[in-house]
Queue: 4 jobs
Job 1
Amino acid sequence: MHKIIFHHVGGDTDIVETQAGVSVMHAAVHNGVTGIVGECGGQAMCATCHVLVREPYVDRLPPIGEDEEEMLRCTASPRDGQRSRLGCQLLIGTDLEEVEVDVPGSQV
């Protein structure tokens, strides 16, 4: 199993174990993680799964695609450079067996 650790404003943490091939957004939504909405269902057409990836995981992420880049311009909480990603575009797997993310205070 792979692990995603969600850090919330205020200090609470959710730890989700999931299988390879699952996105950070789907893992959050299916496990009731507060603050991840996933309004578009993972199509990179909203920005309600915005997360801030913690170091040292940022360097292990795939490049930001054109659609993701466009949606990151629309986040409710301020974007934070390369740390800001859409959870629907981050798949857990071989290159990313574990990741820690900060959940912004607002998605909408």
Note: The radius of gyration is 12 Å.
Job 2
Amino acid sequence: MGNDIKWQKSGFSGGGGEQCLKTTESNGQILFRESGNPELTITTSREKLAAFILGVKAGEFDHVN
């Protein structure tokens, strides 16, 4: 990923920035990376992300530790 990408983190992330999940949009895709491992990027579509968020809100992943 180029350095020109502007990553955004949640205001609920750790204050020092070391416990962050950051996101951005590039070429119609949603990208995620962890501050502790910025070389690894997860890419998904808006539709897949929306389905995942609905599942989280519905409690479908509450059993995941």
Note: The chain has a mean pLDDT of 88.
Job 3
Amino acid sequence: MKFVLKWIVNGAIMVASLMYYADASLWYAIVTATVITIIAYFLGDQLILRMTNNLVATVSDAILAYVLLWLAADSFNWPLSAGELLVIAIVLGIAEWFIHRYVLQGDLKVQRA
């Protein structure tokens, strides 16, 4: 369920942003959002968040999103500027902060039971 929430939230942000800023097709935007979400879930949520804290995991997810979006923009010849990539990464980082809080809150309830 946590992955599905992350996929929906990140997907909505990335798909809308890529279609707006890069004039990306819906299919390429969905595929890009899905790939980035999968990588961020395993690296950010399952590894970094569990080893550190919300702030470190959020910053690492935002940096990861910036780098992966930059690579996708380069691969698909999307005209994304560094500023546009930064805006998308910051919005994703804000969303990730709340997703991580939800994930951590659920983990605490499981540990207490």
Note: The longest helix spans residues 82-112.
Job 4
Amino acid sequence: MDELRAATRQSTARTGIIAFDGARGTVSIPCTICDVSGTGARLKLDWSLSFPKEATLIFADGLRKACRVAWQKRRLLGVAFADGVASPNEQALMMTEEEQLLHRRHIGAQVRGAREARGYTESQIANLLNVSPEFVSRAERGETSIPLHQLTHIADLLLVDLDRLIAGPASIGLPHESDVELVAQ
């Protein structure tokens, strides 16, 4: 759970709505979407009451994603998309190209760090994944996306949680959480 809280904080500050079924019908709460990835988002709410385990996140452009609450700390909420990883088309609606690049770079840096910590070379990992060393190199630099099935395989090979590869501690050169706080205000 702590690894989800340490997700890369990109300087996004989009408005959205989080909706859920309440005692008197649907409750809709405005929120600021501070971080979004293919698997979930971090939200700031103007709501301090208890929150249900499931809700729908509605982006400003109308995209709706069913979510499960991963964690809540006062008015901050971490949600995971209930249907798993968002499709590339959904991700394009949720994140700008620059944000997608930052996310790919973060995942690539996490993979590189885990690979180096275990003493593997790019060529060795490429052989184990049945891909080219060039693909591994480009993926670690964030130039190409790593498919989820390969990320799962990499996590297994390197003995790390998949969550750590996707939402582990922020990499050098990416905005810090406090930077996002300033942008969102």
Note: The chain has two domains: 2-81, 95-180.
